[in-house]
Amino acid sequence: MKTLVWVEHDNAVVKDATLAVVTAAAKLGEVHLLVAGSGCRAVADAAAQIAGVGKVHLADNAAYEHGLAENVAPLVAELMGHHDAFVVPATSTGKNIAPRVAALLDVMQISDILSVEGEKTFTRPIYAGNAIATVESSDAKLVVTVRGTAFAKAEATGGSGVVEDVAGAGDAGLSSFVGAELAKSERPELTSAKIIVSGGRALKDSETFEQVIMPLADKLGAAVGASRAAVDAGYVPNDYQVGQTGKIVAPEVYIAVGISGAIQHLAGMKDSKTIIAINKDEDAPIFQVADIGLVADLFNAVPELTGKL
Amino acid sequence: MKILVPVKRVIDYNVKPRVKADGTGVDLANVKMSMNPFDEIAVEEAIRLKEAGKAEEIIAISVGPAKAAETLRTALAMGADRAILVETDAEVEPLAVAKILKAIVGEENPGLVILGKQAIDDDSNQTGQMLAALLGRPQGTFANKIDIDGDSVAVTREVDGGLETVKLTLPAIVTTDLRLNEPRYASLPNIMKAKKKQLDTKSPADYGVDITPRLKTLKVSEPPVRSAGIKIADVDALVAKLKEMGVA
User: Fold this and answer.
1) Closest-CA distance of chain B to residue A246, Å
2) Which tens digit of pLDDT belongs to each residue from A202-220?
3) Using one digit for the tens of pLDDT, what is the confidence trace for B35-66?
4) Is residue A125 within 8 angstroms of chain B, CB to CB?
5) Residues 6+ apart with CB under 8 A from A233
């Protein structure tokens, strides 16, 4: 089988999310990559170094700069004429593009796979991860999005892929990019961090969140996450949200501070290696999944912890 | 303009799903069912656009069993004008739902179709994007803000790094994220009024769509269970644990 992997990038560097997808694609067959962007030859050259990669298709066109699905999907659909599976990270970019490609190919997409069980058989979470479905596709081609935390990362170097330019139709004339407000942070990225400190509604407001959670995260070199309740209440921006519809994370250590543990939140973090919960309610559901639980008032416990580290 | 809002009847988001002992699926017998939360946000957004004078008519659509009529009545009670139930007891995959919606779009010519970004049962996150592809229309997925201006709509999207705004030419497809709005509750008088609103019942065959599944579910199983660990007495014990793990 010949796979086509969507390379996640910002026109400058290959994002880590790509590496787990390469591992998943390699279980299906030959791994070819697609780098679609603008002024992104360096990305293609770097992607060619990923271990196990064959051809790297480079579509360099201003219309692909921001990954607009309207422009990119026809390009992918055309390349799928000589590939058997389109394999995409389940990032916001991937989730936007993949179904548009699937419909153009008249294929039923398989979302968020956890494992490859056979040539056309995969497992995937349903009901916020409260059940795992094993599904088999009957379509001639596959379109699959991959949960990054479920696959080991391929080595970023050691490969010897060959970069080949491809032309696409470019601008479909349906949409344009206006602007972005992207969070700038010195902290590690949530989805690839080894340690995450996450705060919930109990943090009261954005200032308190900042004063309590951030120093602990800085001390541990951790990324900062939040429950939906904390994001909805405006303590932190949307990109902090961990859960069923936010980010799915699986760090070495996940420290849940003042998070009660709704099933939607657990869906996003229960594959963490060690879960530590700090909550003053000893009946909070978070303690049912926590490896280490501390029943305490977070406003005393967290500053004390930060001070003693 | 008209706005089409597809809604799905799903397990209530407060209910913890249980896998059936025979591994064929999730047990939905005697379980509370509700409108998919993202679809409620879609209905609310359509109503707000109508209230702001940007839309004239809101049509709610559901593809599902006869009981999905209850979900449509909820949409009507919130403020949708009429509803179409495409009735089937079969499980309909996103691709087939998108094909049915495409046919309805052909009949109704809406300026916007607003869908929930994903249903909380199958967690697919596909239907809106597929519909946009089948229609050759632009898509604004994971919307945090919608701003209609003449013949285009600016959609601010929740993306992994923060927020991003795209401009789409109308007609367009939008899918909702959590923070687009807070859906209203239907008032009792509106629930009563909704019972008299028009609700047409159709079948997938009426739209000439083959809903045969492309995916076969071989089994549904419980996820690996995480057992509760230990409770520790104080912060000092936690510091000791973190040091043991080598993270502090």
Assistant:
1) 9
2) 999 999 999 999 999 999 9
3) 999 999 999 999 999 999 999 999 999 999 99
4) yes
5) A201, A205
CA distances from B150 to A177, B42, B54, B59, B127 (A): 18, 21, 9, 21, 26
DSSP string, B85-117: EEE-SS---HHHHHHHHHHHHHHH--SEEEEES
Strand partners, A293: A277, B231
pLDDT for A185: 80
Answer whether residue B229 shows pLDDT above 80.
yes
Give the CA distances from residue B4 to residues A178, A268, B47, B202, in Å, rounded to whole numbers and listed in that order: 25, 31, 11, 16
With an 8 Å Cβ cutoff, are A237 and B161 in contact? Answer: no
Q: Which of residues 137-176 of A touch B (CB under 8 A)?
A: 137-139, 173-176
In chain A, at which residue ranges do the beta strands (DSSP E only) sit? 2-6, 30-37, 53-60, 85-89, 110-113, 115-116, 121-126, 131-137, 142-146, 162-165, 175-182, 195-199, 223-226, 253-257, 274-279, 292-295
The Cα B37–Cα A14 span in angstroms is 35
Residue A257: name the closest of A286, A221, A215, A218 by CA: A286
CB–CB of A292 and B241 under 8 A?
A: yes
pLDDT at A15 over 90: yes
- Interface residue A250 vs chain B (CB under 8 A): no
Model pTM? 0.95
pLDDT at residue number A204: 95
Considering CB atoms only, which of A173, A253, A288 is closest to B228?
Answer: A288
Residue scoring higher pLDDT (B227 or A286): A286
Look at A99 and B125 and tell me if their CB atoms are within 8 Å. yes
**Structure-model confidence comparison of residues A298 and B226, the more confident one:** A298
Six token digits for residue A56:
């790297």
3-state secondary structure of A10: coil
Above 80 in pLDDT, residue B228?
no
Contact flag A103-B236 (C-beta cutoff 8 Å): no
SS (H, E, C) A212-227: HHHHHHHHHCCEEEEC
Whole-complex ipTM? 0.96
Residue of A nearest to B125 (CA): A95
- Distance separating alpha carbons of residues A155 and A158, to the nearest angstrom: 7
Q: What is the pLDDT of residue B247?
A: 84
Does residue B160 belong to the interface with chain A, where contact is any CB pair within 8 Å?
yes
Residue type, A100: R
The CA distance from A299 to the nearest CA of chain B, in Å, is: 12
- Which residue of A8, A144, A220, A238 is the best one to mutate when testing the B interface, meaning the one whose CB has the most B CBs within 10 A? A238
Q: From the list B17, B167, B216, which residue is nearest A131 (CB)?
A: B17
